[in-house]
Amino acid sequence: MPRFGILSTHPPTPCGLATFSAALGAGLSSIGADVSVVRVADGSPSSSDSVIGELVNGSPASVAAASELLNQNDVALIQHEYGVYGGEDGDEVVDIIGGLRVPAIVIAHTIVKNPTPHQRSVLEEVVALAHRVVVMSEAAGQRLRRNFDVDRHKIVTIPHGATIPSNAAVHRPGRPTLLTWGLLGPGKGIERVIDVMPSLQHLHGRPRYLVAGQTHPKVRAAHGEAYRQARIDQARRAGVADAVCFDSGYRNVASLTTLAQSAAVVVLPYDSTDQVTSGVLVDAIASGRPVVATAFPHAQELLATGAGIVVDHDDRGALASALRRVMTEPRLAGAMAAEARRLAPTMAWSVVADAYLGLAHRALDERPALV
Question: Taking every annotated instance into account, which residue ranges of this chain make up the domain Glycosyltransferase subfamily 4-like N-terminal (predicted)?
Fold first, then answer.
């Protein structure tokens, strides 16, 4: 059983990358692998036993030390996101991978559609140094092959993992809930749903829209709670203040899963037309709930078989119609939920971890040809 060293942000850092790395590490541990983490420092201490060291961005000594800590394992899993590491566009990660003597499997969380020249060069260098690069959707793989000068044979698709609920039945409140969750800030598209809420208030039970999640730390540091307050003001002006709720409380995985299961429909109204990986989308499908999403690539791909409805970003009428249909057509909502439940097992963290284990074995088997 190979030993895995993971380089990433890690809890208690509040970001999707940290959540992903912790869940993947737990999935690997559950199938018997030894996992250690080199955590990107953010000023807060980690209580995890798996964290064996921290990377201090901007410190050449720390960059070299991170490579050596990862070299204590058989395989290094490098989480790649441009804004995580030090240097311009996070280019310090190139030096870390360059200092490895063990195979590096890079997990690419963002493939920019129109990268700057430097963003392009950073990712191309990362792929050149890596043994394999994991993308989490076919759309991401196609974009990486098409827009970057990389070795196509290195690209592997492994889905984003999800926690599969152990309980099938969850109480749903009498008032139907439209749910959006995740770190809050501009780009989430919350205003789209608030815009259409007045047209849904005549429906049975008067649906409510729940936005769950803390404001993104970087957004809060730069702008405070301005985005959240603007959306609260928008709901008040639209006359639906009593139908739009914001919950900034912290939820662990279990409570978030229960919340998702309690929703009539999960809404992903994101501004981005480029997003090729969405952990929230995967979690929504894993919860077995119907999804309505704007037409970003990962949503178009995962919802194509009927687990949800995709609407154009600028078509408020289509968004209102999709939400109305899910809440008033039980057969449609049931079919969408059933398709989500059919897809969910393929996304279980145990399945995803097993795929990484297989990839690690292949990397180690192929390594003699590389040295």
Answer: 16-161
Mean pLDDT for all residues in the chain: 93
In a domain, 172, yes or no: no
> What's the domain range around 107?
3-161+348-370
Could you tell me the pTM of the whole model?
0.89
The string over 153-172, giving b where at least 16 C-beta atoms fall within 10 Å of a residue's C-beta and e elsewhere, is ebbbebbbbbbbbeeeebee
pLDDT tens across 318-336, in order?
Answer: 999 999 999 999 999 999 9
Q: Which helix (H) or strand (E) holds 124?
A: helix 117-129
What the block records as the tokens of 184 is 């809050």
Note whether 234 and 138 are same-domain residues.
Answer: no
Structure tokens that stand for 146 in this block:
């098409």
3-state secondary structure 9-71: CCCCCCCHHHHHHHHHHHHHHHCCCEEEEEEECCCCCCCCCCEEEEECCCCHHHHHHHHHHHH
